[in-house]
């Protein structure tokens, strides 16, 4: 089921989002399919996505907790976030 609402309508119902928010809202934006296919196909070819020499070792990437900590000036995220992640995902 899809419910369409503006940001203002959602804020009027649920209030301003914060770290303690329990309501999760997602948005799905569907551009014209022709544009999406043409742009994505070219982007994948240009990215050389299938070239194994250009792949990055996932272990060198930051964890979700590190990204959140960096973005929030260490207010959220960090090692505790990463440690608790498997339980949250379950």
Shape: flat
Q: Which consecutive residue ranges, at least 5 long each, have pLDDT under 50?
A: none
Q: Please summarize the sheet with the most strands.
A: none
Cα(first) to Cα(last) distance is: 24 Å
Number of helices, where a helix is a run of at least 4 consecutive DSSP H or I residues: 4
Count of the separate structural domains:
1
Our estimate of the beta-strand percent is: under 5%
N-to-C SSE string, H for helix and E for strand = HHHH
Number of strands: 0
Query: Radius of gyration in whole Å, from Cα?
Result: 19 Å
* Helix amount: 40-55%
Supply the helix-strand structural class. Answer: mainly alpha
Q: What's the pLDDT, averaged over the residues? A: 78
Question: What does this protein structure show overall?
Answer:
The chain is mostly helical and 90 residues long. The protein has one domain (7-89). The protein is 47% helix and 0% strand. The protein contains four helices and no strands. The chain has helices at 7-14, 33-47, 64-71, 79-89. It starts with 6 loop residues before the first helix and ends with a helix. The mean pLDDT is 78.
List keywords for this structure.
mainly alpha, 90 residues, flat
Summarize the structure.
Helices cover 47% and strands 0% of the residues. The protein is an all-alpha fold and 90 residues long.
What's the topology here?
Layout: H1 7-14, H2 33-47, H3 64-71, H4 79-89
